[in-house]
Amino acid sequence: MAAPVPERIARRRQEFRRAQVRRRRLGFLGGVVLAAAIGMAGVILLIGSDGGGSKAVGSASGRDSGGAGRASENQATASPTGGAKHDPTWKQSKSPVPILMYHVIGEPAGEVTYPDLYLSVDDFSDQVEWLDQNGFTAVTLIQVQNAWYEGGTLPDKPVVLSFDDGYLGQYLDAMPILRRRGWAGQLNLKAEGSDLSIKQVKKMIRAGWEIASHTITHPDLPSITAGQLESELVDSKRILEKDLGIEIINFCYPAGQYDDTVVAAVEAAGYRGATTVDPGLAQRGEPFELKRIRIDNGDGASELEAKLGT
To answer: What is the CATH number that goes with domain 76-309?
Structure first.
């Protein structure tokens, strides 16, 4: 569910963009110096060889393609499932797993339409600290699915931290807090209209985050036409895979709205599973109706403890 961007996050976004401008200016000056150095090196190479070295320096294969290749490589080799690093103490498990549901990380500025979608950075940090101190380990949904269906392993107390829509605070605040513990989340990302840039999402992928589709335009899926439904499911997956250079495995229903027709379409679109807003634990026998535990505005560590206990 979409919500207005809080003033604090808007200010941080402006600061982030100003910093980008400064870096680009510095990069331009540095590029002039670098270009001169490369030019001299090219002259030397041409004098001492048949020109092959010069071609390698200036070829597409020698340049950074923007990160898609690196993101795909990291996802495929370094940490194909993302999340916490596997530990020898992890065991095979088919047990239910809690999936926490977050939206905006940050406090609302003034009147907002959906205040319950906001969680302060301090409350989020307290929740993560409580999870850590009480033996939980954050994993991705892919890691859970591998344990459920393919004999993979999980820690004693796994938990998935899922974040819907793609708000800036998820990148600026949630990612660093999780990374300090070697953890990562699941980002349920709209293919269009989120606060996050492709570059920022790729950094989240390299930090171990799983990216799941949250459609293109965040519609009420049961109320749209069959053609629109197919586009929201299939095209969102295609767009994210093209932009990010990774395979999109899972799906999240916008506002938790689904019915039997939508579930069948999600499965037909090639997803492995889908998360809802239905309360409870995610279970192996409900791959396309995975329940989550909603985190609301004002929930601190004690509220999280109560919800997990329930």
So the answer is: 3.20.20.370
